[in-house]
């Protein structure tokens, strides 16, 4: 299973859907699967039970998905930060970090008002802090692909190229 990791706005869901289509495999969105499993929204789970309970549920859902057939899985921005979840992803999947710079991320997240980040006083500073704390961990992914100003289809092409290159080395 290919597992996409990265910050919100990196394009994990959009690129993931297109990548799955190109590879003729199923696509899974971890947040959607968590919501189906819990019968409530991610935001409600955080509000009612806290981050620790959410991360526990997230880990179980990701482990279940990685135990199944092949496909593409888009994770939430914090999933790879959880040590146990990251270990499961590294053991059972192929992780791909969708790397994007601050301006690209801010432009993309500003297109949706559903992001809790945007309801904070200084969303750009919050995103910068997330980049500083999370990028060193995301760098542990098996493959890094730029998700910048090019189209999402370009990112898909880069991922497929990286997958072929990796396969040729093995």
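^ structure tokens above, recovered residues below v
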């Amino acid at each position: 299973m290919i597992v996409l990791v990265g910050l919100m706005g990196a394009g994990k869901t959009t690129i993931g859907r297109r990548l799955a289509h190109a590879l003729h495999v199923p696509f899974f969105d971890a947040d959607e699967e968590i919501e189906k499993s819990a019968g409530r929204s991610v935001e409600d789970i955080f509000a009612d039970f806290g981050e620790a309970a959410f991360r526990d549920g997230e880990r179980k859902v990701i482990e279940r998905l990685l135990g199944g057939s092949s496909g593409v899985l888009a994770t939430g921005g914090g999933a790879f930060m959880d040590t146990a979840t990251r270990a499961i992803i590294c053991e059972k999947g192929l992780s791909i970090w969708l790397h994007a710079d601050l301006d690209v991320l801010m432009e993309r997240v500003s297109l949706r008002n559903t992001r809790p980040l945007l309801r904070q006083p200084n969303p750009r500073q919050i995103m910068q802090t997330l980049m500083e704390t999370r990028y060193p961990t995301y760098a542990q992914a098996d493959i890094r692909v730029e998700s910048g100003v090019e189209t999402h289809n370009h990112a898909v092409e880069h991922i497929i190229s990286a997958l072929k290159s990796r396969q040729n080395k093995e």
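Residues 31 and 108 are 18 Å apart (CA to CA).
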